[in-house]
Amino acid sequence: MTTLLLVEDDLDLAGNIIDYLSLEEYTCDHASNGVAALTFLSQNRYAVVILDINLPRLDGLSVCERIRAEGNDTPVIMLTARDRLDDKLAGFANGADDYLVKPFAMAELVARVQALSTRRSGQVRQLCCGPLQMDVKGGVLKLHDLPVKISPTARVILEQLMRAYPSPVSRDALSEAIWGEEVPDSNSLKVHIHNVRKGLGRECGVDVVALSKQGFKLVIEQE
What we know:
The protein is α/β, with parallel strands linked by helices.
């Protein structure tokens, strides 16, 4: 069964959500405050986090902001009684992927969980793969804690590979991330991949390899 984390201090509502999700073959860990939520997230991997904004000890916006800063890419659905646009924008600005206003239909919650559970969040701000670290917002790349200078295009490629790690990224997906719909000739991507590898260096313990019919994959040698 797929495991979710529910962070909700209203115990009656939490019980109803857990019971309903169990009928859809989801299991839930439950935290009733923000500090407990961070503990669960540091110890477990979840398909989706269902996160209330108004929480004791640490509010949901702070929880979401903190896990994104740490590189956690678990999709987050925020639950709140606040329905103003500014409140929704604040949730997205702090790293939420979706927003559901109370009261809501349980079937709608399930539909949103299903949509998010098949992917990882694009809201993560700090990517880390072995000795390779990227501050997505600031565009800073570090290898073994030392700054690495690469081109903007190479940075886009590395971001896609790090988000997917340890899975490969198809050539089409990389091309779309770089150029959108206006993809140049087929050799251009190979040239940029070469520049990524050159920028990282040969003895760094990190490499980008081509996989037949799959695309490209980031490889961390010590793992």
